[in-house]
Amino acid sequence: MRPLIIAIDGPSGAGKGTVARAIAAQLGYRHVDSGAMYRAVGWKALRDCVPLEDEAAVATLADESTIDITSAHVRIDGIDVTREIRTPEIDRAAAAVARLPRVRTVLVGRQRRLGIDGSIVMEGRDIGTVVFPHADVKVYLDASPDERARRRANDPAHSGGPKGLAEVATLLTERDELDRTRATSPLYAAEDAVVVDTTGKGVEVVVAEVMAVIKLKS
Predict the structure, then answer these.
(1) pTM of the complete model
(2) Concatenated DSSP letters for 45-90?
(3) Domain of 62: which CATH number?
(4) pLDDT tens per residue across span 20-31
(5) Residue 141 belongs to what domain range?
(6) b/e for 177-186, b at 16 or more Cβ within 10 A?
């Protein structure tokens, strides 16, 4: 199989991370969570007291930061923030910085460089529409709001969050609205993406469906 660029998009709680990691492992590809870049920038901005609405300052911060993402760790300027960036506070910070066009320009450039040689599975919200509009494979994962809230509430990767499903559902609804209404790179399924509804499906089933799409496209 030739080296492919595989874009997996979708809202929070749809299963992007779990599925993307599994696909990358099966293919021996690199897995990149593009959202972790925005989370890392949001974390650093809060740490350094940089106002999240100051586009120039946050863009400079992003440009000057060294961000390293592996399947196991997220580091910014050598600091491991893998756990620290999975909190409701950083959810909001990431959504805020992701709305800034100049920040997106910086991070999209880095994401494209990571995938220049293919052999990559990148997940996010604008991978198939903006980062890699000519990706070899585009998949958009979705699920019902109730399913997504349940998954997020039970996800051990997210710490410090509310315990009640209603609270989690509210946070996800707010994040969905921010992502879908932002002026730059809003969340939506690319016209040529294959939409996979993961509601009520086990990980193995979804991975098999996505692998079938990859085989058809490769």
Answers:
(1) 0.91
(2) HHHTT--TT-HHHHHHHHHH--EEE-SS-EEETTEE-TTTTSSHHH
(3) 3.40.50.300
(4) 999 999 999 999
(5) 5-217
(6) ebbeebeebe
